[in-house]
Design goal:
The chain has 12 helices and 9 strands. The protein is of the alpha/beta class and about 280 residues long. An 8-stranded mixed barrel has the order 1-2-4-5-6-7-8-9. The chain is globular, with a radius of gyration of 21 Å. It binds ligand C2E and calcium ion (3 copies). The site of one calcium ion has 4 residues, from loops. This is Putative PAS/PAC sensor-containing diguanylate cyclase/phosphodiesterase.
Length: about 280
């Protein structure tokens, strides 16, 4: 038993060491990647649920890693949060998203009424210089603040609800729109929710997927939509993949939708083709 115990200990430490090395390697690679411009954005349109009219785009980051290939955010965002690399990465995402919107708006007038929606991680949001970093990006890119929307997760907002309320109000004063992202996957205090100056609520795609699996799930989606409306927020359903989901969400009075049913996330060149097509209509 003693031998076995020692082996367990050895396996355990090696595993920990591996993880630490992996974390450090990834951290270095990520910092180098930000410097070397290995990260880029794809954009997914979101629309009015009743008219299918274009409302805006969500910017989603991708990493073109020199040896590991194309990596989705699920493979590095959590790590970037843990190591702090998210601060530089997040600023870069905000800058690229605004720069892309401004370039499109110059070329296609239809873009000028749309929103560019950017994901903000918890650590980025709670960071001391966050408001200044937004101001800097707006100035540098010429992005109109009222065309920018920030998506902040329920978990990030609730972490320090008092200071979040204050910070969100300051962002709102700048004219920027605010979404609570991944709603339903975290824990929200109802009393706080009504104090946040949020424009809309995004229902996590896990709920949309389950909506037609059982009546209960459908009722959960209905309850979330009604709650949002009671609190003066509009609702965006993410992950809408088929016409029956669209119809149900229309019946539930959800305002906006995003998902493969409408469009997949697209890199800049595809977005340009998409926007050129819109202008012809
Ligand atoms: P999210 O903010 O909830 O974004 C929606 C995710 O659902 C995206 O995955 C999108 O590609 C995917 N999606 C959209 N429509 C559909 C659909 O109809 N079906 C399915 N199955 N999926 C759909 P993606 O791009 O892999 O991003 C995953 C998560 O990574 C995002 O979830 C967000 O939390 C995070 N993320 C992405 N970009 C950034 C970023 O720039 N900064 C930060 N902090 N987080 C980011
Ligand atoms: Ca989002
Ligand atoms: Ca989500
Ligand atoms: Ca409101």
């Amino acid at each position: 038993a003693k031998e076995q115990g020692r082996d367990c200990f050895k396996v355990f430490t090696n595993k920990m060491l591996d993880q630490a090395v992996m974390l450090m390697t990834m951290e270095q690679e990520m910092r180098r990647g930000v410097q070397g411009d290995e990260f880029f954005l794809v954009f997914q349109p979101f629309v009015h649920l009743h008219t299918s009219e274009l409302v805006g785009f969500e910017a989603l980051v991708r990493w073109r890693h020199p040896t590991r290939g194309l990596m989705p955010p699920g493979a590095f965002i959590a790590l970037a949060e843990e190591t702090g690399a998210i601060i530089d990465l997040g600023s870069m995402v905000l800058h690229k998203a605004c720069a892309a919107w401004v370039a499109w708006a110059e070329q296609w007038p239809a873009v000028r009424n749309t929103l560019m929606s950017v994901n903000i991680s918890g650590r980025q949001f709670s960071q001391f210089g966050f408001l200044d970093s937004i101001r800097t990006v707006l100035e540098k890119t010429g992005m109109p603040p009222e065309r920018l929307k920030l998506e902040i997760t329920e978990t990030a907002i609730m972490e320090d609800a008092e200071s979040s309320a204050e910070k969100l109000s300051r962002i709102k004063e700048m004219g920027i729109a605010l979404s609570i992202d991944d709603f339903g996957t975290g824990y929200s205090s109802m009393s706080y929710l009504q104090r946040f100056p949020l424009d809309n609520l995004k229902i996590d795609l896990s709920f949309i997927r389950l909506m037609h699996v059982s009546q209960e799930n459908m009722e959960i989606v209905r309850a979330i939509i009604n709650l949002a409306h009671t609190l003066g927020m509009e609702v965006v359903a993410e992950g809408v993949e088929d016409a029956s989901q669209r119809r149900t969400l229309q019946e539930l009075n959800c305002e906006y939708a995003q998902g493969y049913f409408y469009a997949r996330p697209m890199p800049d060149d595809e977005m340009r083709a998409f926007l050129a097509g819109l202008d012809q209509e």
